[in-house]
Amino acid sequence: MFKTLFRYPRVSSRHASGPLAEERRTFLSHLQSQGVPRSTLLRYASQLLLVAGMLVREGRARIARAQITGCAKRWARWQRRRGRAQTVKWPAQRFDQVACAWYSFMGWLREESPPKPSYASQLDAWTSFLHSEGLSEITSYNYCWWASGFLQWLKQEHARLRQVSPAMLDGFMEHLSSKGLSRVSLTTAAKVLRRFLHYAYEQGWCQRDLAQVILCPRLFRQEDLPAGPAWTDVQRLIAATDGTTRSHLRNRAILLLLAVYGLRSGEVRGFCLEDIDWTRRILRVRRSKTARMQEYPLTATTGKAIQRYLKTARPACARKELFLTLHAPFRRLSTGALYHLTSSLLERLEIASPKRGPHALRHANATYLLNSGSSLKAVGDHLGHRSLSRTQVYAKVDLVGLREVAAFDRGGLL
Q1: Which string of b and e fits 154-181 if b means at least 16 CB within 10 Å?
Q2: CA 251, CA 269: separation in Å to the nearest integer?
Q3: What is the pLDDT of residue 3?
Q4: What are the angstrom distances between the C-alpha of 111 and each of 51, 69, 107, 180, 204?
Q5: At how many degrees (to 10) do helices 231-239 and 335-348 cross?
Q6: What is the pLDDT at residue 184?
Q7: Which residues are catalytic?
Q8: Is 153 exposed, middle or buried (0-12, 13-18, 19+ CB in 10 A)?
């Protein structure tokens, strides 16, 4: 590994004769098998030699993360004193990243269990109940997040779940309101809290069933408008990625999936290589809210964009996800990465849109389909809605239909 990685024999010999050489060679071979480029391997190799020299004195047997952090800070301060670094932050961060990755791979890292959250057993039971109700992973996670926030607030207020009162519930809602949450978020919190408290009463954790005393802002059905850019602006977004760089090829394929199929961010992030049937030209989508599979015909434009990305831009590694980061360590794209993709393009092209994330393209897709003459049922099926009420909100921006109503001849009444 070292002889093929380094061009100069003296450099290769220094790495081969350094501490923990075989262990470093094993880790570098693993990175190479994951498709890590040579430039990154060189950087890791140099950092690993340094890490091995400093941490071998700490002992290999199950080193704690705090020990690695301490060594990283000492190394960064030494680099700064020698004038090789302007700040302590970045040298320490690089040292910590490489050392933790290496020690974790070798099984030497002693992971310390995080402190258990307040009411851990109750939260575990609540999570199991949500799964038994058939809720999706995302919905279950959100419900647990709200319940955990409420229980943490009780702990900060030195209150117990068993003695919770209507005044305490009002105090928690005021606490959320003071944090600047929107009316929709406050209503969501109240809905989850009602369900959680009813379940807590059934389990005997509360003395009273206070689910019905929680007050929240009133929301009117379909009071909001879909907040997406115009379809001509969506076309400009896609055209802006018509390049040959790796990021252009990947982003173009992502934007086409968001715009043409109206997919959610999590559905695009969850795409796997096996979800595309190239023989039948079929795209299989696992719906994030219902967890059911839905098949779509793979359009020629989208298929060509995905093929170009797979051939020239996607990292060569063993991961099954379709869309990955372009730099090692390769991993599935995060929610923030997709949000940055759409929001930065909207800002660069100066496109006005109330929503800036990937969901704005879902709204734009639905609005475009309705304005093109598709029925609400057809649009709902395309978006994967379980009920027509989810799709009816887009009827409020059916501009073609509204123009027909406005142009209706009222026989001189006006």
Answers
A1: beeeeeebeebeeebbeebbeebbeeeb
A2: 12
A3: 85
A4: 19, 13, 10, 36, 35
A5: 100
A6: 84
A7: 264, 289, 359, 362, 385, 394
A8: middle
Helix (H, G, I), strand (E, B) or coil at 320: coil
pTM assigned to the model:
0.67
Res. 397: pLDDT tops 70: no
Cβ(283)–Cβ(272) below 8 Å: no
Predicted confidence (pLDDT) per residue in 278-315, tens digit: 999 999 998 877 778 889 999 999 999 999 999 999 98
Instruction: Report the alpha-carbon distance of residue 288 to residue 135 in Å, rounded.
Output: 10
Distance CA 258, CA 269 (A): 11
Q: What is the percent of the chain where pLDDT is above 90?
A: 37
pLDDT band at residue 373 using 50, 70 and 90 as cut-offs: confident
Backbone angle region of 107, left / alpha / beta, with phi > 0 → left and psi within -120 to 50 → alpha: left
Nearest Cα neighbor of 396 from 245, 177, 227 is: 227
Q: What is the mean pLDDT of residues 51-77?
A: 79
Q: What is the Cα–Cα distance from 396 to 375, expressed in whole angstroms?
A: 13
- Rounded Cα distance between 253 and 286, Å, is 18
Q: Assess whether pLDDT exceeds 90 at residue 340.
A: yes
Pairing mode, if any, of strands 109-110 and 63-64?
Answer: parallel
Q: Which amino acid is at 123?
A: L
Give the percent of the chain with pLDDT over 70.
88
Please report where in the chains the tokens 């390049």 appear, as a residue: 243
CA atoms within 13 A on the CB side of 128: 6
